[in-house]
Design goal:
Layout: E1 15-21, E2 26-29, E3 37-42, E4 48-52, E5 62-64, E6 69-72, E7 82-85, E8 91-98
Antiparallel strand pairs: 1-8, 2-7, 3-6, 3-8, 4-5, 4-7
Length: about 100
């Protein structure tokens, strides 16, 4: 089954990536003033904590449990960098972004 964004943006021109999130703040998606959609999936077995436009801090900000998704779209447009952190380090976040 495919994933359909809820914000109405056409994701066909986007790019996907995989980021290793560390136990110190890690940039998951860079700042992008043209961003229309972004998706971050916690593809690990532990919680990740995200922050927008500032360093991520353990147990603060946006908590993504394993397999949770953060979706940024037309209804909640955020263009700042998305940073993450996890307790053990070297956990994977899957990303998708389109302008």
């Amino acid at each position: 089954m495919g994933y359909t964004p809820t914000g109405g943006s056409d994701p066909s021109a986007g790019s996907a990536d995989s980021v290793s999130v560390g136990n110190t703040t890690t940039e998951i998606i860079a700042e992008n003033a043209r961003r229309k959609i972004a998706i971050v999936t916690n593809a690990s077995d532990e919680d990740m904590f995200l922050n927008i436009g500032a360093d991520a801090v353990m147990n603060k900000g946006i908590r993504l449990q394993p397999n949770d998704i953060l979706e940024i779209n037309d209804s909640n447009r955020i263009t700042g960098a998305i940073n993450g952190i996890c307790s053990s380090g070297t956990k994977t976040a899957l990303t998708f972004e389109a302008d």
